[in-house]
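seq as requested:
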Amino acid sequence: MKAGVILNYKLSEQEEVGHLDVLMVMFNNLLKMFDEVHVFSLHDHKADYDLGERIFVHPLPGKGPIGMLANVISARKIIQRERIDVVRMLATTKSAFIGIFSTLFMQIPIILSVHVHRALYQKQSGLALNPVFNFFVELWERFALWKADVVPVISYFIRDYAVGLGAAPDKIVLHRNFVDTELFRPMGRKPHGGVRIVFVSRLVGAKGADLLIRALGIASRKHSGLELYIAGGGPERSNLETLAQELGISEKVKFLGPVKHEKLPELFSECDFFAAPAQAGFVLNEALSCGLPVLAADIEWTKEIINEDVGALVPFGSPEAFAEGIETMLVRKAEWPGMGKAGRGLALHELSIEAYKNRELEIYRKALEL
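struct tokens:
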């Protein structure tokens, strides 16, 4: 049997933020069940990724309406030629469009993962899209979820979102993000002056780095020893650097650029707590697994795992509210070791990579009715 996985982005973007390793967990795990894994990378021209034996990359470089139709035709030819048995899409928009239309009338089961609430993502990104455009995008999402055979979701929050769009509840499977607790383990806090906050993400609007910098500016008026490490690259970096300068805190904000995935535990050991001011991904689990307290916005799946035992939650969208969260963390400084220990326990017991791998294969068995 052969599995196809359609990404909504370039593999190179995942390399940039050091999270290609996360995808490799998925791909290699599928090789326990499938003879080959075929990866379709949108807007990507590169075809020579070396992901190992039996993992094949197919770039789909087309952009815009004509390009997307070309992508559908290319993907369909590959799916037919390789006799792919099941197709997995990792988003409800572009990858779902290609996955659904490239398999039309082919009797191939499709799996559609839902990771984000699209309207909330737009709000976090500062996007004000045309209401007519949004109307048709929502119609598409409803159609895609109706066509899907299995719908994995990362949280109860996203489950409710998918059901609200018409997904049949019996198709939905709760499939939380995971963490490799062997790689991401406590290394002990390395001594340093002041209080160091760390943020790790691709630098795009939805991740809220601008909100975090503004919050740091507010909190620094009262606490002079604060500093912020920002790890990751992306299109917003220059804007964020300018913002730090305008707020007069550029000396407190250190831009590290992309950090390799396996180097994150070392980075975490140099910091005091992790900040997730907006949408958070796998790195939140990784910070918890390394025993790092977490300050996070109370949105999406984050609010389902973060509580006072492991850190603090604050209302989303306000630099003032996040600055108050920083103040809360400082007041509770004596509790940081206990928070770190509780976070590590949470990772071990609820977010393990083995549980993820087992669920992943069960999702494919469900789609294939095995």
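The mean pLDDT is 91.
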